[in-house]
Amino acid sequence: MVLAVEARNLSIGYLDEDDNLVLVVRNASFSVEEGEVCCLVGESGSGKTTLGNSIAGVLPPYSVTKGLLYLFGKLVVKDELRFYEGVRGRLVSYIPQNPGSSLSPYMRVWDQFWRVMKAHGFTEETAKKKVAEILRLLNLKTEVLDHYPHELSGGMQQRVAIGLSLVTGAKLLVADEPTSSVDAHLKLQLMRLFREIKELYGVTIVLITHDVLLAGKICDKILVMYGGEIVEVSSAKELLENPLHPYTKLLTRVVPVLGYKKKLESIPGEPPRPGQVMEGCVFYERCPVRGDECVKTPPAQEVDGRVVKCWRPLIKESALLS
Ligand SMILES: Nc1ncnc2c1ncn2[C@@H]1O[C@H](COP(=O)(O)OP(=O)(O)OP(=O)(O)O)[C@@H](O)[C@H]1O
């Protein structure tokens, strides 16, 4: 089994105006197998983008890293040292939050493909073939190649940007909230597209989303983040059918379901502030099943091949949560 991503005690932070280190990802240890579609889910500010950026090699230079990160066995983060040279584009491609805005407004679509592909050693003939294949997959007509991005709809721009991330042949795609700027119907289509991409090209995909139900529809594995920590890692099916962490359970109730009238609930209380020093469990303040032991930091424990960071995993449905 090849691991596309392996993180060991990875922490990431930024320096605040007083030069204090604010950790926004803490001690993340997880792996993503080659060919898996893995989603990072969690509320806004939980550290998903920062963790995704570390995998994609797009962390800002002023960020601070600790711990280890490997991509396909290649060490890319070793504490404060980073080794992304030759990795971005070749091993990993990044699709930003608003992919359309990553396109150059001054170049026709074909020129944008050609610029990238030329740099990766394609001839014009092989590039044209490859682009035609990718456009078919993305359900785009070849006419888009003659257009400037502003002449295309937002959804088309998004698919062009996804196409650009595929042409270099990277083995790992990281997409940050790729569905944030499209309507609910297109969301599912776009997420399914990622699955098709995985099936056709065998790439590993890391998707960042706050929508755990959407994640459940297309992912193999879900990592749930809360307050900078990974609190649960599970297969998508098991996580939705039987969430182990109380936070995961609550998270599945706050997302609207397309086509169903469902009363939405919110999770009472506020998530921790970035850098807030916490004793004990990171979810303590908002947890409906907390107990005395939760003032101590829970270890990441394995339950039936899943990982949960909680003293009181919901192995049985808790009466307090129903
Ligand atoms: N470049 C940066 N410089 C300083 N602080 C940052 C930077 N990027 C993110 N942060 C801070 O790190 C914390 C985690 O942010 P991050 O964007 O990783 O979370 P997220 O879960 O992806 O949230 P969202 O869904 O809103 O994007 C936030 O408090 C944010 O303000």
Automatic annotation (TrEMBL):
PROSITE patterns tied to this protein: ABC_TRANSPORTER_1 (PS00211), ABC_TRANSPORTER_2 (PS50893)
Xref: Pfam families: ABC_tran (PF00005), oligo_HPY (PF08352)
Gene Ontology MF terms in the entry: ATP binding; ATP hydrolysis activity
Domain ABC transporter: 5-252
Top-rank taxon, per record: Archaea
Keywords: ATP-binding, Nucleotide-binding, Transport
UniProt record, GO biological process: peptide transport
InterPro entries: AAA+_ATPase, ABC_transporter-like_ATP-bd, ABC_transporter-like_CS, Oligopep_ABC_C, P-loop_NTPase
NCBIfam families in alphabetical order: oligo_HPY
PANTHER family, per database record: MALTOSE ABC TRANSPORTER, ATP-BINDING PROTEIN, OLIGOPEPTIDE/DIPEPTIDE ABC TRANSPORTER, ATPASE SUBUNIT
Protein's recorded name: Oligopeptide/dipeptide ABC transporter, ATPase subunit
